[in-house]
Each structure stands twice: as structure tokens, then as C-alpha cells.
Specification:
2 domains, single chain, 8 strands, alpha/beta, four-stranded parallel sheet, 16% strand, Rossmann fold
């Protein structure tokens, strides 16, 4: 079997999956792993609450299980990292969450990172995640664009709101790197970085880049090592 990274969008929006897929073109290299983006049909149109996060864990793990024989690694493409630990119990392959990977990448690009969130209700989940990682001292804060996941398809409105929020994170909160806090924002990274003049991290790109490294360098999970 050739190397294959499975990227799972745990909401049911095909438009979001298509945007993720296009943003990963730069990581599709000759001789590199195949990168397949899948949509979780059982998911909500957007994952915008803790209830949504909790509700997709079961079907997401079933999809991981169904793809396991044909996958070298998995990426969960939602900034809430839904089902991350459960998925890691479902497969012996590496499983990366985009929030974890995005934050890890931002730490290499600046002293303090900010998060461009979708809704105000996302902020509490993101603060809990940063606190659990022990990174409060590196966290400039998060600010919402005030748009649902499906509304992110309105390019003019979304980009203007992301630039407004990004500038506030930079100028008022002291962020010198910014993470886009939703996989549905993938198409806006280059334009947002041009407007802010500081590094902007697409967390799905970050996670897939790490997955490629894990696959090509032969990293094994603890579960894989336990088999030997």
C-alpha cells in the first residue's frame, strides 16, 4: 500500500472540505504521500458548540476504523480537535488534531499567538485547550469574526472580518503570530497574512505537514511500539 494521509472534515459541509483540499495542494509532492480529504456525512453543517464536538466522536471514530487499513496517518480537520484521543485509541496510526498542530507551529513563528475564532462561543473551548497545554503565557488571546462555519463561504465579508480581528489581535493584544481557528478559513491564509504582515497559520496545513513528516520519517505511536 502506498502512503496515504486521510484528512477528515468532521462537519457535513462539502464546501469546507473542498476548501481544505485546495489549501493542501502545496503539500502534494511527487513521491509524497497521497492526501485524501473526506467529509463526515453524519456531522453537523458546522461544529460550533461543545455539543457538536461531543456528537461527532462516535461517527468520526467509525470512519477512522473504516479507513484504517488504507491509511498511514489521520488528520482531524476541526479546530476543536473533536474525538482526538478517542481516534488515537481507535487506530495505531498517527492521528493529528489541527488545533494541537496549529498551536505547536505558531510557537515556532512568534512569541505570542492569537486565534481568529468563528464565534464568541468558541473562545471558552479554545482557552481551555490552551490552558490544558500549559501555554497561557504564550497566548495573546482569541477574538471571533462572528460568522458561522457555513457563512465563511462569503469571501468578501469573511476576509474583511478576519482582517479586522487579526489586526486587533496584533495591535491590541500583542500577537506576533495568528492561527486561523477554523478549518473552513483555509482559503484565506495568504490574503490574511499579506494584510497583517505577521505569520498566519492554517492549522490543517500545519497538521498535514506534521503527518507527512511522521509517515516519511517512520515515526511510530506508542501503540505501534507496543506491538514490537
Amino acid at each position: 500500500m502506498g502512503e496515504r494521509i486521510v484528512v477528515i472534515n468532521p462537519n457535513s459541509s462539502q464546501d469546507v472540505t473542498d476548501g481544505i483540499d485546495a489549501a493542501l495542494d502545496g503539500l502534494r509532492l511527487d513521491g509524497g504521500p497521497e492526501i485524501d480529504c473526506l467529509t463526515l456525512a453524519e456531522g453537523p453543517p458546522g461544529i460550533e458548540s461543545q455539543r457538536h464536538v461531543d456528537g461527532v466522536v462516535g461517527p468520526l471514530c467509525r470512519l477512522v476504523e473504516a479507513q484504517d487499513n488504507r491509511a498511514s496517518a489521520f488528520v482531524i480537520a476541526c479546530f476543536s480537535d473533536p474525538g482526538l484521543q478517542s481516534a488515537r485509541e481507535t487506530t495505531r496510526k498517527p492521528v493529528l488534531g489541527i488545533a494541537e498542530a496549529g498551536i505547536a507551529t505558531a510557537l515556532t513563528l512568534g512569541e505570542r499567538f492569537g486565534i481568529v475564532a468563528i464565534l464568541a462561543t468558541s473562545l471558552g473551548r479554545q482557552r481551555r485547550f490552551v490552558r490544558a497545554m500549559g501555554l497561557e503565557s504564550r497566548f495573546a488571546g482569541g477574538r471571533p469574526v462572528g460568522l458561522s462555519v457555513t457563512a465563511l463561504a462569503d469571501e468578501d465579508l469573511t476576509l474583511s472580518r478576519m482582517i479586522e480581528v487579526g489586526r486587533a489581535l496584533k495591535d491590541e493584544d500583542g500577537a506576533d503570530a495568528v492561527i486561523m481557528g477554523c478549518a473552513g478559513m483555509a482559503r484565506y491564509r495568504d490574503r490574511l497574512e499579506d494584510a497583517l504582515a505577521i505569520p498566519v497559520v492554517d492549522p490543517t496545513q500545519a497538521a498535514v505537514g506534521m503527518a507527512i513528516s511522521a509517515v516519511r520519517l517512520g515515526y511510530r505511536t506508542a501503540a505501534q511500539r507496543a506491538m514490537h
